Amino acid sequence: MTFKVIIVGGGPVGLYMAHAFERANIDYVMLEQQDTVLNMSGQLLFTWPQTVRLFDQIGLLADLEKVALGIHHKKRLFGDNGQVTTISNFWDAMQDNHGYPFLPLLRSELVKILYNHLKSKESNIRVNSRVIDICPHATGVHVHLADGSLIQGSIVVGADGVHSRTRQIMDSLVAQHALNPARLANKPMVSTFYGIFGRASNVDLGIEPEVFFESRGGSSSSSSSSGSGEGGAVIQCLATKEIVQFVTLKPLPGGPTAERSPRYSDDEMDAYAASLEDVAICPGVKFGDVWAKVERKSTRMLNQEEGFLDNWFFDRIVLVGDAVHKSTSVNGLGMTCGLHSGAVLANELHSLLSRLRGKEEPSTGELEGAFKRYQEDRKAEVKPIWNGGHAMIREVVKKGWVSWFWDRFVLPWCDMETFAKGLLVSVLLIRQGQILRFVPFEGRGGRVPWARKVVV
User: Fold this and answer.
1) Contacts with 233 (C-beta within 8 Å, 6 or more apart), sequence order
2) CA distance 197 to 246
3) What is the pTM of this model?
4) Which residues, in sequence order, are CB contacts of 447 under 8 Å at separation 6+?
5) CA 73 centroid distance within chain
6) In angstroms, rounded to a whole number, what is the distance separating the alpha carbons of residues 374 and 64?
């Protein structure tokens, strides 16, 4: 049997991996449980320069630039009074440093472009394909679907998100068959914060376009759906002349939970929004003003999970993206971490198959060796980012004089994003971006050279 990857999940990470496999001449099938991989999600995804570079390598940059929102400045402000504390041109500085811009993209637009550019999308993507079981064997895997179908392949890549069914099945297999199941057991993802993401008309609001506003520490009202109203909130937004995209986060009322996010009703969303109605999202505009102009069909409320798993693979099953490392949206690095994990996994598989030169199928042991290298590589890079996001969300929602003093007097002078035109962020994070080693590519450059390049 020809080596074949079964990708579970048709989101940005799964679609990117399909592109990588097409370029590596690795056969694949993608299983998506919904009736389409295309959706109308209004979520705004921040695409960092190192990730824009990945998209450029697979030929998507021109199309992505056409649909991206403009962004040039960042302004932080106090949520209680709208006073701006810091202003930076971080986004433009990063383009100078690396040759690629930040591209704020609607998830729906990104998925559409990834999907449309896949050569084998008609034959290799199966929708309405809900996975119910995965059975590894000595030479491959059997994936059982809810409709009774059986899909056969060599490995399973679980790119099915924070509520990964692939991960659930893998963890069950670990408990049944691993020599040391306690060592390989994964802790569940936990939600500590919840919020709304969506968009509203900016025609009458007049929020300054192409400026990323971050409102920190705003108070929830006593009528908040969070009960006691303790703790603050963070609201981030980015506007064009016509629309404003926003996301809010504040602590869950009952504390952290491992339960899956409920489907919040419109009434619950309205109550949550009312609790933040007096919080300034930018000078002169409060969240209540935005909520009055909100587009309901593109707005959702949900819990945002956090988690970093210890074990990313077992037997012929391997996980990628939010299935193994999930942060809140506050630092805008979730998708970037997932896509770069996908690139490393694709590199490992291509390298393994190239060594075998098609003479034989890789053994389970050889595959686990590749998965282990992938896991070790990405754990070392993603964990510091995850730790930073974990600390950041807890800092930006804090109330009290210490947080006020930090934002007012300390942050303007020691902000990593403004120090030396963001040089620390460029050197420590962006320049370390991954690349598909087997796809010829030169790409763009800037003042800070890329750490990884394709050697032809």
Assistant:
1) 79, 195, 215, 217, 218, 219, 220, 248, 249, 250, 276, 279, 397
2) 6
3) 0.93
4) 96, 97
5) 22
6) 28
Cβ pair 215, 279 in contact under 8 A:
yes
Mean pLDDT of the chain: 90
Q: Where are the beta strands (DSSP E) in 162-299?
A: 190-201, 211-219, 232-239, 243-251, 280-282, 285-286
Residues 6+ apart with CB under 8 A from 85: 76, 77, 78, 407, 408, 411, 412
List helix spans (H) across 327-363.
334-356
CB atoms within 10 A of CB 305: 22
Query: Distance (Å, rounded) from C-alpha 325 to C-alpha 408?
Result: 32
| Cβ 48 vs Cβ 105: under 8 Å | no
Angle, alpha carbons 262-228-298 (nearest 5°): 35
DSSP secondary structure code for residue 161 in this structure? -
Q: Please tell me what DSSP assigns to residue 257.
A: B
Residue 94 pLDDT > 60? yes
Q: Rounded to 10 degrees, what is the CA torsion of 169, 175, 181, 187?
A: 60
CA distance 247 to 161: 19
125: pLDDT strictly greater than 60: yes
- Dihedral pair phi/psi, residue 443, rounded to 5°: 70, -170
Coil/strand/helix, residue 43: coil
Measured between alpha carbons, how far is residue 440 from residues 29, 57, 437, 456 in Å?
24, 8, 8, 6
pLDDT band, residue 450 (cuts 50/70/90): very high
Measured distance CA(369)–CA(349) in Å, rounded: 10
Could you give the residue ranges of the DSSP H alpha helices within 131-286? 165-177, 181-184, 266-275
Range of weakest confidence among 29-43, 103-117, 294-308: 29-43
Which residues carry out catalysis? Answer: 236
Integer Rg of the chain from CA = 22
